[in-house]
Design a protein that fits this description.
With 158 residues, the protein is mostly helical. It is 43% helix and 8% strand. The protein has a single domain (5-157), classed as Transferase(Phosphotransferase) domain 1 (Transferase(Phosphotransferase), domain 1, Orthogonal Bundle), CATH 1.10.510.10. The protein is built from 6 helices and 5 strands. The strands form 2 sheets. A 3-stranded antiparallel beta sheet has the order 1-3-4. Helix 2 runs antiparallel to helix 4 and helix 4 packs antiparallel against helix 6. The longest helix has 20 residues, at 19-38. It starts with a strand and ends with a helix.
């Protein structure tokens, strides 16, 4: 059992995490996502609110499988599902089918927020956000204190 609170509350309380702490949190999140995908489950709503963290140990748990979907590689996913700020471009655009890799985009959004304490694609409204996400140009200036490895990790996810 993970006694604690979600990552939204943790960020509000702590203000930020060290890069080493973020790596530990993401390692656990990636293990959870890998487990889901190996069992043909697409979470479709990975976000700070759906990740519980224990204050001292930084142990995390992925929760809220309300949008989760059992996928089949022969089936095309096109349904809009999840939280808009964390959605992959292929889900937002609804122009082409998506698969479980869209969960990895959401992991990238979580990683960026944990490293920069802000969203990578700020937008005044849904259309502006959608354009920025589809263009894929996230704010790299907010990552100036991050290592090249962390930035490379984000470049591969977003």
């Amino acid at each position: 059992m993970c006694k604690g609170y979600n990552l939204v509350k943790a960020l509000q309380e702590r203000d930020d995490f060290t890069e080493k702490e973020v790596a530990f949190i993401l390692w656990q999140l990636l293990l959870a996502v890998n487990y889901c995908h190996k069992n043909d489950v697409m979470h479709r709503d990975i976000k700070l609110d759906n990740i519980l963290i224990e204050k001292q140990s930084l142990q995390v748990k992925l929760i809220d499988f309300g949008y989760a979907f059992l996928f089949d590689s022969r089936q095309e996913m096109v349904q809009l599902a999840g939280t808009f700020m964390y959605m992959a471009p292929e889900i937002m655009s609804q122009k082409k089918p998506y698969d479980q890799l869209s969960d990895m985009w959401s992991v990238g959004i979580v990683a960026y927020i944990l490293l920069a304490s802000k969203f990578p694609f700020p937008g005044g409204d849904i259309d502006e956000l959608k354009k920025r996400v589809v263009d894929g140009n996230f704010n790299k200036k907010a990552l100036k204190r991050c290592s090249k490895g962390a930035i490379n990790f984000l470049n591969n996810l977003l």
